[in-house]
Write a structure and sequence with these properties.
The complex is a heterodimer of chains A (374) and B (260). Helix content of chain A is 40%, strand content 14%. Chain A is α/β, with parallel strands linked by helices and 374 residues long. Chain A folds into two domains: 46-161 and 284-340, D-Maltodextrin-Binding Protein, domain 2 (3-Layer(aba) Sandwich); 181-282 and 349-373, Periplasmic binding protein-like II (D-Maltodextrin-Binding Protein, domain 2, 3-Layer(aba) Sandwich). The radius of gyration of chain A is 23 Å and the shape is globular. Chain B is flat. The two termini of chain B are 32 Å apart. The chains are: A alpha/beta (374), B mainly alpha (260). Chain A: Pfam families: SBP_bac_6.
């Protein structure tokens, strides 16, 4: 046989094999703490022998991997830095602008490495489709959380929620009171939606809000798509993905988004106002969960305890989000009264689409959204 | 090889790894067809714009003496700009002719005309303009050598035989350049067809081109379990690019005969 050919094919095979072998090395997972508790299966701080032990175990690990937590989203920037200082644990914040599905993809791709995310903060449909990846855990304040906002075993717990709102720069456009106002000529080229509704949960809820304002319901999102088609036809729809930067620049003077993100914008733009249209109140909660394969299982559990403590809940509130223990804390007097009172007013019964309704509406959007805003 | 195989296998599997043709069927949905059409329009138009303007520019600089500063500078700048795609390029355009871009504001103040209009920059028309920004320089780089390959002796020979300049171009230069030109058009086509990052930053609504539709299939938090449709879309792109590259190779063989 031709030696040169043989060498070439050998080299080619080696290249292919080494590419396949490039997958991250499996990490030997020993999650047992010094006191003999297996952190990866602990379902409450009791399992560690109390908070002191949990904190010690988490500090032994020394690190926590979080993913898809933008610093300007529900005050996560301050939440992370407060956690780091309080417990002397380094938080590695990966891909702050990623979407919920990216979190699950990252957990799968990085499974077994010490870079995998420890905790998730997910939109409803992604969370409910992946419950087998979560480790059940009940925080100390578990009883304060209303039953409809948590999995009975603690696989997931709603963390914070909000209402779909219209945020606007009152120095640029007239006051907004209803969704229909946005069709007016003063809003030419000014109305942005936070993302593409076939991709982003927030944008999806924005179309749902428009649907309900126009005679639709959680079961019928079509009027919402029609509304955006009208908005586009009127030249009012701005196809820029808004965030706090575009709001500060003035690129996106009107933004349809969760009310707590409007609150974040208001911190930097004095004339920014946020209104929850009373004819179309759409609510949504995010889902908090621990990765069952968390490389830092104790730190992941301590993070949960921190998020659901009075301190953690008030930090979310500071970001304009409604923490899930809000009502209980208001009763107990532990909530930051000033911030709680400053949330946008909401009247009417909020609509929270079920998982099934979300799937149906998503399919409708996949077929019709591109056409509507073409 | 490995990524290509992954794509081919994934395109014929459902979420649980069972064989299926459902993903390929998803390619015939109206949204997927619109995205394919968008990709073809974008790639073809920027390939043509890039090829024509790039060829003119290449001719102009090749006519200059080899040591001319202008010639060297243009080639160097083209080399940089041909690689100047992605996020930076997108932001540069947004800052220039976006809704509150520098040029938009200046033109608005001077003439009252709104360059930004109703957001053309963030759709297919915007992509065509922005992609041309790296297609034209790429054409200059790949096509300038073809002009340089035209030997002066050929022109002298033609003129000695009584040809006018027009005759020389029509009967000698253009036929010689044609394969290289068409090859460059195909290269530009493939270049635009596969570009992703620039479009990902510019376009956030609707999925006018295939790469953006793949993004939707992989990262959507509204439509779940679409990853294998993403593989099918990638397979569709591989098929198109393979056709283009086969054509490119055929043309290249014909050209290289003359360029030796």
């Amino acid at each position: 046989m031709n030696t040169r050919k043989a060498l070439i094919s050998l080299a080619a095979t080696a290249t292919l094999l080494s590419a396949a072998a490039c997958a991250a090395p499996e990490q030997e997972s020993d999650t047992t703490t010094e006191s003999g508790v297996d952190a990866a299966t602990a379902t409450s701080s009791e399992d560690f022998g109390g908070m002191e032990e949990l904190i010690a175990a988490a500090q032994d690990e020394g690190e926590l991997n979080v993913i898809a937590l933008p610093p300007d989203w529900a005050n996560y920037g301050e939440i992370i830095s407060t956690f780091e200082e309080k417990y002397d644990i380094e938080v590695n914040s990966d891909q702050p602008d990623a979407a919920s599905q990216d979190e699950i993809n990252a957990a799968n791709d990085l499974a077994g490495t010490d870079r995998a995310p420890d905790v998730f903060d997910l939109g409803q449909s992604v969370a409910l489709a992946n419950t087998d990846m979560f480790a059940p855990y009940q925080v100390e304040t578990w009883d304060d959380i209303p039953d409809e906002f948590k999995d009975p075993d603690g696989a997931w717990v709603n963390d914070y929620g909000g209402y779909m709102s219209i945020g606007y720069d009152s120095a640029v456009v007239p006051d907004v009171t209803s969704v229909a106002d946005l069709l007016g000529p003063e809003f030419k080229g000014k109305v942005a939606l936070n993302g593409d509704p076939t991709q982003a949960g927030a944008a999806f809820s924005g179309v749902m809000m428009a649907a309900i304002a126009n005679g639709g319901s959680a079961d019928d999102i079509a009027p919402g798509v029609d509304f955006f088609a009208d908005l586009k036809a009127a030249g009012n729809f701005l196809t820029v993905d808004p965030d706090s930067t575009t709001i500060e620049q003035g690129t996106t003077p009107v933004v349809i988004d969760w009310d707590y993100l409007g609150a974040a914008a208001a911190a930097n733009v004095d004339t920014w106002k946020t209104v929850v249209p009373e004819e179309a109140v759409v609510a949504g909660y995010y889902f908090q969960a621990i990765n069952a394969d968390a490389p830092h299982p104790a730190a992941a559990r301590l993070w949960q305890e921190f998020l659901y403590s009075d301190e953690g809940q008030n930090l979310w509130l500071k970001g304009g989000a409604r923490p899930v223990r809000g009502d209980a804390m208001a009763e107990a007097g532990t909530i930051d009264e000033e911030l709680w009172g400053a949330l946008p007013e909401v009247s009417g019964e909020p609509v929270i689409p079920t998982d099934e309704q979300t799937v149906t509406a998503g399919e409708y959007l996949a077929e019709n959204w591109s056409k509507a805003i073409r | 090889m490995v990524p290509t195989l992954t794509v081919v296998v994934g395109a014929f599997q459902d979420e649980d790894g069972r064989p299926t043709l459902g993903n390929l069927e998803a390619l015939t949905s109206e949204a997927a067809l619109t995205a394919l059409r968008g990709s073809l329009i974008l790639s073809a138009s920027t390939a043509l714009i890039g090829a024509v303007l790039g060829a003119l520019l290449a001719y102009l600089i090749v006519s200059m003496p080899p040591q001319a500063l202008m010639r060297r500078a243009t080639l160097a700048v083209s080399g940089v700009l041909a690689q100047f795609g992605g996020v930076v390029l997108a932001f540069a355009w947004i800052a220039t002719i976006g809704p509150v871009g520098v040029v938009t504001n200046a033109v608005l103040e001077l003439t009252g005309a709104n360059l930004y209009g109703t957001g053309w920059l963030f759709g297919l028309p915007g992509l065509i303009v922005v992609y041309s920004y790296f297609q034209i320089p790429l054409m200059v780089i790949v096509f300038a050598p073809a002009f340089e390959g035209l030997r002066p002796q050929w022109r002298e020979a033609a003129i000695n035989l009584g040809a006018s300049t027009w005759d020389y171009w029509r009967h000698v230069a253009i036929p010689l350049l044609r394969p290289a030109f068409l090859g460059a058009v195909l290269l530009l086509f493939a270049n635009a067809f596969a570009a992703y990052a620039t479009a990902a930053v510019l376009v956030s609504q609707g999925q006018p081109i295939v790469p953006l539709m793949i993004r939707q299939a992989i990262t959507s938090e509204v439509l779940l379990g679409q990853a294998n449709v993403g593989f099918a879309l990638a397979l569709e792109m591989i098929v198109v690019v393979t056709l283009v590259m086969v054509g490119y190779n055929v043309l290249l063989k014909r050209t290289s005969r003359w360029m030796r």
